[in-house]
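are you around this afternoon, could really use another pair of eyes. what follows is a protein written twice so to speak, once as letters and once as structure tokens for the fold. i want to understand how the tokens follow from the sequence so walk me through it. anything you notice is useful, everything is just below.
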Amino acid sequence: EAVHELNGQTITISDSTKTYINPLDLDQNYSLSEDGGDSPVKAKVEYMQGWVESIIDEGSLSPIEKTIVDRCVRHIFEDYEKSGFKDESKQPLLKDFQEELAKQPEEEAKKMAKALERFVKGTQDIFSHPTNVDIHNRVVSFDISELPASIQTAGYLVVLDHIMNRLIKNRAKGINTWIYIDEFHILLANPSGAEYVAKIVKIGRKYNAMITVITQNIEDVSANEWGRKILGNAEFAIILKQKKRDRQIICDIFDISEGEARYIGNDAKQGQGVIVFGSDKIPFYNHVPKEFRIYQLNNTDKKAIART
């Protein structure tokens, strides 16, 4: 609704569309370090370790498996890197990575190659194609809600990595970028993926990005090491009504007093909450009448009913 109202563009990533993003896309200035000093391939290795964890969904990769991913990613990028990341005919695809895994002598590599086969040649091959996303709007929404639950984390990471590559191009043009990450807790499902997202949030400002994370599942975020770091480093937060257990977690993270916590308590009204800005806490009550257009755009009651 809000995207439509702003004449924006919605890009749906699902197994029923022909819109694709290659998880191995790589800009020549791609970096995950604060000073931008690491090589693009090194940063892509780190991303792919998290992505493989999420797509295989069997927990954290072992040190041996991470070494194998490191080796294979470096191998498949050799020709593209030699071209200065300019010859797109040498841009690797997921099939190149899967085939490289299959060539390795370790049994762990062959298992990963076999696990990735259905995402390259099988029914869930949506990540095996060259990127064909055409962004032609200042307001863009990526919708992954139609992805199967088993690959939603992987899909989210692919979208974020695509945005990261776009962010680098925007910075070179002097363009500021606003990024809103909804259902943020989904990204914390695997350790390497969570670490990757935490780095994006941390270095975003250096790339002229204003990043906002949104979640209704604060318990999962606070139980995750990287989730806690992201919340703890937030300079600005808007906190609305919380359950008792979540409220205590929030108050501890943001140092919210007992008096201020009443604004996010069980009897908090709609439009009531606490703004955290640095060390300042500002309780607020911003009632929006239901007949206002801004209320209709942000009302999710109909969607909630449709999901039940």
Q: What stands out?
A: Residues 304-308 have pLDDT under 50 and may be disordered. The two ends are 20 Å apart (CA to CA). Residues 152-172 form the longest helix (21 residues).
